[in-house]
Write a structure and sequence with these properties.
InterPro entries: CheY-like_superfamily, NreC/VraR/RcsB-like_REC, Sig_transdc_resp-reg_C-effctor, Sig_transdc_resp-reg_receiver, Tscrpt_reg_LuxR_C, WalR-like. The protein is globular, with a radius of gyration of 17 Å. The chain has ten helices and five strands; from the N terminus they run βαβαβαβαβαααααα. A five-stranded parallel beta sheet has the order 2-1-3-4-5, with helices on both faces. The relative contact order is 0.11. Helix 3 runs parallel beside helix 4. With 223 residues, the chain is α/β, with parallel strands linked by helices.
């Protein structure tokens, strides 16, 4: 079955462009559009999309609050949120990820990246591109811990290897890349990632990355 996509952006021309790109793919179907967060909530309830392509800056209700309500504990359906961002309006992107978004994508990304991001998010994975993640977190380094603060007690529940894996997840590495870095199998990495998410009470890799930076475990700009 096709992945059902809801387009949320206050610029009609952008929505039209996204629709043209997505409807050219056999496995994607645009089921509706919304021009602000309030309309998005109504459309999610009515249309039950699999993925919501969500703008951040919109009238009436912004993408952060809409994301929080769509993915929160009172959610009405299975919709996952993929945030659209431009790097001159990024101050809310980390908040959107904390609110429950499964990833973020640049508005000027090539068409194939948009399509692939929707497929990844629909499959239950997090869209965490390493280069974009580092640029975003580096930009807001002043608002994140310096790494000198004591780490939260919850990190003490992780094993040494799980901490290593969390650091690599925060850098945006895939399971295959982490496996190569640590000289273990991908299955082992998946197990470690699962343990990290469970122990820290996190939903996915995106939240794990944000947690790693906010806790001071990883410093922006660190390799």
């Amino acid at each position: 079955m096709a992945i059902r996509v809801l387009l949320v952006d206050d610029q009609p021309l952008l929505r039209t462009g996204f629709r043209m790109i997505l409807e050219a793919e056999q496995d994607l179907a645009v089921v509706g559009e919304a021009g602000d967060g309030l309309q998005a909530l109504d459309q999610v309830r009515a249309l039950q999309p699999d993925v919501v392509l969500m703008d951040i800056r919109m009238p009436r209700m912004d993408g952060v609050e809409a994301t929080r309500q769509i993915t929160g504990p009172e959610r009405d359906g299975p919709a996952k949120v993929l945030v659209l961002t431009t790097f001159d309006l990024d101050e809310y992107v980390v908040e959107a990820l904390k609110a429950g978004a499964s990833g973020f994508l640049l508005k000027d990304a090539p068409a194939h990246e948009l399509v692939q991001a929707i497929r990844v998010v629909a499959a239950g994975e997090a869209m965490l591109a390493p280069s974009i993640t580092r640029r975003l977190l580096d930009k807001y380094a002043d608002h994140l811990p310096s790494g000198e603060e004591p780490v939260p007690d919850t990190l003490n529940t992780l094993t040494e290897r799980e901490v290593e894996v969390l650091k690599l997840v925060a850098r945006g590495l895939s399971n295959a890349e982490i496996a190569a870095d640590l000289f273990v199998s991908e299955t082992t990495v998946k197990t470690h990632v699962g343990h990290v998410l469970t122990k820290l009470g996190l939903r996915d890799r995106v939240q794990a990355a944000v947690y790693a930076y906010e806790s001071g475990l990883v410093r922006p700009g660190a390799q």
